[in-house]
Amino acid sequence: MSKPDWHRLYTIAIVAVAFLVVLGLLQQQHAFAYAPDDPAVPYHCWQTNEDGTFKIVVDNSTGAQSLVPCEINHGDNAWMLTSAALVLMMTPAGLAMFYAGLSRQKNAVNTLHMTFITTGVIAVQWALWGYSLAFGPDAGGYGFIGTLDWAGLQNVLHDVPSDAYGGITGFTIPHMTYMVFQMMFAIITPALIVASMAERMKFSAFIIFIVIWATFVYDFAAHWTWEITAPDNYGRNPGYCNFGWGGCLGALDFAGGTVIHITSGWSGLVIALMLGRRLGYGKVPMEPHNISLVVLGAALLWVGWFGFNAGSAAAAATNATSAFVATQIATGMAAVTWSLISWAHTGRPSTVGAASGAVAGLVAITPASGFVSPMSAIIIGILASIVCYAAVAFKNRRKWDDALDTWGVHGIGGLAGALLTGILAEKRFTPWGDNGLAFGNPAQLYENAAGAFAAVAWAMGLTAAIIKIMDLVWPGGIRVTPKEEEVGLDLSQHGERAYVTE
């Protein structure tokens, strides 16, 4: 067998690499070849001349005209892509572990699978129509829902910034970077609801439910809270205020207290009540089967939440720093507070309680993170644990089987965070924000309350309708049979077990 001709192989490899580099440079050169009449132009940021007209580059060989994109800040882009990855980790890793650990052993795989599969299902929904409905041009100028102009991510460019979505330093990240960051928020929101339907809903029904819910609950709430447009709704509606109706009202939600936690938490309560209690609820032990998974999941959520909150600055800017610090302080304070309350109430410091307290703090600081000082974050952390602990105790007395406490932690924590934002916000942290009641602006509390309670009503009403209709049309209803529930959903729904010891 002859020896390989390494010199020839190296030469071929070098030529191949050089070819790929040249090809990449050619693609990069033409990546910015967007003509003035390109349908994506109205939705993106382009450099202009002193008189406001677009800068035009003319190809001398063809005479073709192309626009010059606004400059992309690679530091901002790197931070936002990192933040997107951190938020993604929160669902198939953090939330999946957290919920699986809180479940009974016979349902751990089902709970984990529901959370994990949401990552895939909603990623597709978001790309096909969700992003367009939530963040696209407004339909009719009412600030309620978007159009399908960006369906399939058409007109969402990977190499040009949006002319509406950016940080306090301007439009510095590609439009597609912003889209994928927001995708991770859309993914985790319906996954949070898994806690309320845990151990009793058919897996097949769950898949259809999250697609419908994400479209009619999340996408609407995201649009009216976070949507921004270029002037006059991209020229379609003269006089349009350039925000969803919640933004026009002045409601502040930096990272999703209303859009994510209120919608998921209060929807979860509706589902828990409509599905009914689990078999044996209040009669047989239903304690968490693996506290190690609970703590691991909470830790992953805590780390990922820095992308969640600080990433919502949409740039590596100063308000990303303030949001990062506020998140850490509020979460630490909430974990300590819940532990102390639990210790005083039961006589023992609860490990699950400390993890739940941390999550409650993360939830409550979410809408406020980019608007509040470190000392205000301490107040939010303390109050978050108090009200969420009280909500869980109230739920238990009422025998509402919100199995893993979506409502008590996310619904109540999100509502408390939204109201506290209206009290403690300070404009000095994020210039497009405003001062709250404690800093001389009582109107901010009203505005935040209006946005928050509108989300509560919308989420509860739509969720009730979705569950009712699905239960009527789904063969055998959306709840598993008593026999399947008794055996456990791991075996009855998936034919798998969390632990195989023999």
From TrEMBL:
<dbReference type="GO" id="GO:0008519">
    <property type="term" value="F:ammonium channel activity"/>
</dbReference>
<dbReference type="InterPro" id="IPR018047">
    <property type="entry name" value="Ammonium_transpt_CS"/>
</dbReference>
<dbReference type="Pfam" id="PF00909">
    <property type="entry name" value="Ammonium_transp"/>
</dbReference>
<keyword id="KW-0924">Ammonia transport</keyword>
<feature type="transmembrane region" description="Helical">
    <location>
        <begin position="78"/>
        <end position="100"/>
    </location>
</feature>
<keyword id="KW-1133">Transmembrane helix</keyword>
<feature type="transmembrane region" description="Helical">
    <location>
        <begin position="406"/>
        <end position="425"/>
    </location>
</feature>
<dbReference type="InterPro" id="IPR029020">
    <property type="entry name" value="Ammonium/urea_transptr"/>
</dbReference>
<dbReference type="GO" id="GO:0005886">
    <property type="term" value="C:plasma membrane"/>
</dbReference>
<comment type="similarity">
    <text>Belongs to the ammonia transporter channel (TC 1.A.11.2) family.</text>
</comment>
<dbReference type="InterPro" id="IPR001905">
    <property type="entry name" value="Ammonium_transpt"/>
</dbReference>
<feature type="domain" description="Ammonium transporter AmtB-like">
    <location>
        <begin position="78"/>
        <end position="499"/>
    </location>
</feature>
<dbReference type="InterPro" id="IPR024041">
    <property type="entry name" value="NH4_transpt_AmtB-like_dom"/>
</dbReference>
<keyword id="KW-0472">Membrane</keyword>
<feature type="transmembrane region" description="Helical">
    <location>
        <begin position="375"/>
        <end position="394"/>
    </location>
</feature>
<feature type="transmembrane region" description="Helical">
    <location>
        <begin position="320"/>
        <end position="340"/>
    </location>
</feature>
<feature type="transmembrane region" description="Helical">
    <location>
        <begin position="352"/>
        <end position="369"/>
    </location>
</feature>
<feature type="transmembrane region" description="Helical">
    <location>
        <begin position="254"/>
        <end position="276"/>
    </location>
</feature>
<feature type="transmembrane region" description="Helical">
    <location>
        <begin position="179"/>
        <end position="198"/>
    </location>
</feature>
<keyword id="KW-0812">Transmembrane</keyword>
<feature type="transmembrane region" description="Helical">
    <location>
        <begin position="9"/>
        <end position="26"/>
    </location>
</feature>
<feature type="transmembrane region" description="Helical">
    <location>
        <begin position="288"/>
        <end position="308"/>
    </location>
</feature>
<feature type="transmembrane region" description="Helical">
    <location>
        <begin position="112"/>
        <end position="131"/>
    </location>
</feature>
<keyword id="KW-0813">Transport</keyword>
<protein>
    <recommendedName>
        <fullName>Ammonium transporter</fullName>
    </recommendedName>
</protein>
<feature type="transmembrane region" description="Helical">
    <location>
        <begin position="445"/>
        <end position="467"/>
    </location>
</feature>
<feature type="transmembrane region" description="Helical">
    <location>
        <begin position="205"/>
        <end position="226"/>
    </location>
</feature>
